[in-house]
C-alpha cells in the first residue's frame, strides 16, 4: 500500500512476523501484488512492515517471473509513528461501516489499542464475531500510514467491566466537559479516551463513568457522530499533551 500525504510516495508491504534484516528479502507474490498494482519499478522505494514494531526501509531490487519480488533492505527502524505512551480508544460499538472506519482512522491517528464497548444504547448482537475483521482493518491502516505497530483490537466489553479495568489518564467526551487544553499530564500507564454511542450514554452510565475517575472533555459546540467525535478526541488530546510537537 502506498503512503499518502507526503511528497514522495512509498509503497509499504506487510509481512507479519517476518524476520527483517539488512540485505535482500524475498517478498511472496501474495504480498508483492500490492507493489505490482502500484507499478513499482526496480530502484524505487519500498518499506516492509512486520507489524511488531520494525520497518525495513529499502528499494525494489527486481521482479521474479512468478510475481514475487526481491527488496534490498538498507535500514531497520523501530517505533516510527508511535505515541510516547499507550493510547487507548474505547468506543461504543457502532454499525459495521462506521466502526470499520473508526478502527482505520484511529490506527492512522496513533491509537495503540481499540476497545469496542457495549453500552445500553448499542444495537445488535454477536459483535465479538467482528473482532478479526477489525484487526485486519487496523493492519491495513498501518501500511497506509507508515507507523510501526498495529493496535490491538480487543474483544467487545461491557461498559462496567471496561471502567473497572481502565488505567492512566482517563477521559470521556462530554458536552459538559472542560476544554482539552486544561488536561493534566499523562502518567506511564498512558491515556484512555472513551466515546459513547450515537444516542449518548444513559444518565446512569454517565454517573458510573465519572465515579470511575474519568474526566469529561469538551470537543466543541457541534453535535458529532460517534466516530467523528472519537477521531476529534484523539487529535485534540494528543495535541494538548504535546505529543504532536515536531
Automatic annotation (TrEMBL):
A single GO molecular function, which one? rRNA (uridine-N3-)-methyltransferase activity
A single GO cellular-component term on record: cytoplasm
Keyword Methyltransferase listed? The answer is yes
Location of this chain's protein in the cell? Cytoplasm
A biological process from GO: rRNA base methylation
Question: What EC number(s) would the UniProt record show?
Answer: 2.1.1.193
Query: Gene3D superfamilies, per this entry?
Result: 3.40.1280.10
Superkingdom of this protein's organism: Bacteria
The catalytic activity, as recorded, is: uridine(1498) in 16S rRNA + S-adenosyl-L-methionine = N(3)-methyluridine(1498) in 16S rRNA + S-adenosyl-L-homocysteine + H(+)
Q: Which keywords annotate this record? A: Cytoplasm, Methyltransferase, rRNA processing, S-adenosyl-L-methionine, Transferase
Tell me where in this chain the Ribosomal RNA small subunit methyltransferase E methyltransferase domain is found.
82-238
Segments passing through the bilayer:
none
What does this protein do, in the record's words? Specifically methylates the N3 position of the uracil ring of uridine 1498 (m3U1498) in 16S rRNA. Acts on the fully assembled 30S ribosomal subunit.
Entry's family note: Belongs to the RNA methyltransferase RsmE family.
| Protein name per the record | Ribosomal RNA small subunit methyltransferase E
Q: Report the source organism.
A: Thermoanaerobaculum aquaticum
Amino acid at each position: 500500500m502506498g503512503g499518502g500525504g507526503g511528497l514522495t510516495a512509498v509503497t509499504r508491504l506487510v509481512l507479519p512476523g517476518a524476520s527483517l534484516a539488512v540485505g535482500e528479502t524475498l517478498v511472496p507474490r501474495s504480498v508483492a501484488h500490492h507493489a505490482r498494482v502500484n507499478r513499482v519499478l526496480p530502484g524505487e522505494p519500498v518499506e516492509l512492515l512486520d507489524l511488531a514494531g520494525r520497518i525495513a526501509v529499502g528499494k525494489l531490487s527486481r521482479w521474479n517471473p512468478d510475481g514475487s519480488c526481491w527488496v534490498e533492505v538498507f535500514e531497520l527502524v523501530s517505533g516510527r509513528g508511535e505515541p510516547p505512551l499507550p493510547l487507548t480508544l474505547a468506543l461504543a460499538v457502532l454499525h459495521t461501516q462506521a466502526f470499520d472506519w473508526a478502527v482505520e482512522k484511529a490506527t492512522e491517528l496513533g491509537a495503540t489499542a481499540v476497545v469496542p464497548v457495549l453500552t445500553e444504547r448499542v444495537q445488535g448482537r454477536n459483535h465479538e464475531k467482528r473482532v478479526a475483521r477489525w484487526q485486519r482493518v487496523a493492519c491495513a491502516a498501518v501500511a497506509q500510514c507508515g507507523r510501526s505497530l498495529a493496535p490491538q483490537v480487543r474483544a467487545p466489553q461491557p461498559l462496567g467491566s471496561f471502567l473497572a479495568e481502565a488505567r492512566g489518564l482517563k477521559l470521556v467526551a462530554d458536552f459538559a466537559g472542560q476544554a482539552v487544553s486544561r488536561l493534566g499530564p499523562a502518567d506511564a500507564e498512558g491515556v484512555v479516551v472513551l466515546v459513547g454511542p450515537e444516542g449518548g450514554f444513559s444518565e446512569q452510565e454517565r454517573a458510573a463513568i465519572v465515579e470511575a475517575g474519568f474526566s469529561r472533555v469538551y470537543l466543541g459546540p457541534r453535535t458529532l457522530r460517534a466516530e467523528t467525535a472519537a477521531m476529534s478526541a484523539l487529535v485534540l488530546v494528543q495535541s494538548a499533551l504535546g505529543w504532536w510537537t515536531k
